[in-house]
Design brief:
Structural class: mainly alpha
Radius of gyration: 14 Å
Number of domains: 1
Length: about 100
């Protein structure tokens, strides 16, 4: 299956996550805090900041999924969309800002 780029991102789902985080002042500030946290974690471990940030971002977004504990059409679609996000790509871009 060919990779489908969207707005320069790996896929539509990845672009939506990054774009929505950046457009909201509160989530933008929080993502910057997570970037700082990931860079600090990287200095204390053998993992790169990108890897730490990808994990932190995924945990943050998935933990706040309002449909996470539900089943049905919309819950399953949201879970599938979040599973398609390239968290490492988002982390790489956020750390380069």
């Amino acid at each position: 299956m060919a990779v489908q780029m969207h707005q320069g991102w790996q896929n539509h789902e990845t672009w939506v996550v990054a774009d929505c985080i950046d457009k909201n002042p509160d989530t933008y500030r929080y993502r910057n805090d997570l970037c700082d946290q990931a860079e600090l974690m990287a200095r204390r471990s053998d993992r790169a900041a990108e890897s730490h940030l990808a994990e932190l971002l995924q945990t943050w977004i998935e933990t706040n999924n309002p449909l996470a504990d539900q089943s049905g059409l919309y819950a399953e679609l949201l879970k599938a969309a979040l599973a398609a996000v390239d968290w490492h790509e988002v982390a790489e871009v956020f750390l380069s800002d």
